[in-house]
Amino acid sequence: MRQNKMILPTLREVPKEAEITSHRLMLRAGLIRQLASGIYTYLPLGLRVLKKAEQIVREEMERAGAQELLFSALQPAELWHQTGRWDDYGPELVRLHDRHDRDFVLGPTHEEVITTLVKQEVSSYKKLPINLFQIQTKYRDERRPRFGVMRAREFVMKDAYSFHTSWDDLDVTYKAMYEAYNNIFTRLGLFFRPVEANAGAIGGEGENHEFMAMAEVGEDTIAVCSHCEYAANLEKAEAAGHEAAGLQPSEEIAATEKLHTQDIKTIDQLVESLSLEASRFLKTIVYLADGEPVVAVVRGDHDVNETKLKDLVAATTLELANDTTIERTLNAPVGFIGPVGLTGVKIIVDREAAQVTAGITGANERDYHITNVVIGRDYTPDQVADIRNVIEGDRCPNCAEGSLEFHRGIECGHIFKLGTKYSAKIGATYLDENQKSQEMIMGCYGIGISRCLAAIIEQNNDESGIIWPIAVAPFHVHVIPVNVKDAEQVAIAENLYRRLQAQGIDVLLDDRDERPGVKFKDSDLIGLPLRITVGKRASEGIVEFKVRKTGESVELSVEKAFEEVTGLVLGQ
Predict the structure, then answer these.
(1) Any bridge partners for residue 411, and if so which?
(2) What is the CATH number of domain 10-237+406-457?
(3) Whole-angstrom Cα distance, residue 337 to residue 327?
(4) pLDDT tens digits along 159-185
(5) Which of 150, 149, 136, 157 shows the shortest CA–CA distance to 34?
(6) Percent of the chain scored above 70 by pLDDT?
(7) Chain centre to alpha carbon of residue 250
(8) Residue 97 CA to chain centroid, in angstroms?
(9) Global confidence as pTM
(10) Where are the domains of the chain?
(11) Cα 548 vs. chain centroid, distance in angstroms?
(12) 3-state SS assignment for residue 430
């Protein structure tokens, strides 16, 4: 490609709307332009990277035995009504009407569509297992689109779905997808970790993993063991049990006693006022699960993990109850809620809060708390379970030797087992060996391809611009004649351009009549892995060869520079 004719509008100034490095660089390097909030046009340079990432995904999926197809992005609402997700999915679902006033959605995901197709086309166990994937644009009406293509309303995704006759069969494909995803993200040049995760809005049963690109701007917190390979999203992470806080069980625990705590409502205020550790307190929080109140109790130094709580009560929606709802439902003032004496409401206690043997909690009476509270004696919960967020320093649940450390990550992929959630509702069945009808068991495997571009840039940049890994670079090598009016420089550059292209190497030839400084700044900004500069020693057959990642620059003969490029690109 000749740069003089290419739509490659680089920017010197940092765009005001760009908050993170990848967004700034994608705009400055001319990869994307914003059309509307969360909606972007991919310019030629950006599209080349996107297509290379897609091809890596495609190759590894096909190598793992998956077949590619392509669905419509426009989906009839009837399918979403059939699974119940028309109401459950929420305002992120982009809904529209056709001229006949029929309801449609722009697909944020394709479980309904793929399950309907397989229901129509596969009827016998002899056709299973099957794994189908597509690479397509998805649509989600994000409440707050931000960080460029990291969280956009329109994005490119690879989604795959597998269908099986048994859970054991699903396990085989799940492991193959796990391996394929490791291969994909390795080839993309990402530093990543597979972590245990929650299935989220798509749902499912059994194990599932997110593939996280490690980056400080990541929206997800990952708990990682300092000793073993355990890693989990904060929504899923657990900790090994702690010793009981407060008094030890062997000690005699006095009866409860009311404590006057005027205008002292928060844990921090209680800690300061009573000079006790936060772990001695029982924090009581009221939620509405599908509109019904549920009370969660955790230690004062812990926070409720709302995802764990939502899953535990099998709720579609979970939200904090407002003050009016709390006072009307529990007949207790906000800030002084406690589990003792509460009736007519489900109480769930975190397993470590249950170990507090002489706790302090709200008395359900304004300006009063209760001391010496003991679970089982003073109150009986409906359930004791892990409903808290882990904290740094917690012991690892896997090895119990290491401690948990927190890191930030960008979710680039997610694999999980759907079970029969969709096949049962849509009626995707097959006839087994005995001609009996059985529901298909499903797996689901997604990769946010456009998000991967942002993750790659977050991990590969410096003060001058992007540093593309060779596998996804829009061009492998940048050939720059310093002076396009120098016939000898132009001749050498043109010769290298043609010869490298003939080897299947992607070359960008900077044939612009610009100052050398402008060319070099643009070259560093767009971040092609290799650069050959044809300059003042062209008459001697000498050029400058530079590796963008290391900054290493050496003078070589034209032929040696050609060999270096072909060796690095074709030998990867």
Answers:
(1) 212
(2) 3.30.930.10
(3) 10
(4) 999 999 999 999 999 999 999 999 999
(5) 149
(6) 97
(7) 46
(8) 31
(9) 0.88
(10) 10-237+406-457, 257-385, 475-570
(11) 29
(12) strand
Q: Which residues pair with 431 in a beta bridge?
A: 124, 437
Single-letter amino acid, residue 113 = V
Asked if residue 460 lies in contact with residue 466, where contact means CB atoms within 8 angstroms, the answer is: yes
User: Would strands 318-320 and 282-289 be described as parallel, antiparallel, or unpaired?
Assistant: antiparallel
Integer Cα distance of 98 and 104 in angstroms: 7
How far is it, in rounded angstroms, from Cα 309 to Cα 323?
20
Chain-centre distance of CA 285, in angstroms?
A: 28
User: How far is it between the farthest Cα atoms of the chain?
Assistant: 97
Q: Among 438, 314, 422, 395, which residue's Cα sits nearest to residue 80?
A: 422
pLDDT band at 16 (very low <50, low <70, confident <90, very high): confident
Q: How far is C-alpha 257 from the geometric centre of its chain's CA atoms?
A: 48
The alpha-helical segments, DSSP class H, found in 107-225 are 111-121, 167-187
Contacts of 220 (CB under 8 A, 6+ apart): 210, 212, 233, 234, 408, 409, 410, 411
Other beta carbons less than 10 A from residue 67's beta carbon: 12
Q: Is it the case that residue 246 has pLDDT exceeding 60?
A: no
Note the CATH number of domain 257-385. Answer: 3.90.960.10
CATH code linked to domain 475-570:
3.40.50.800
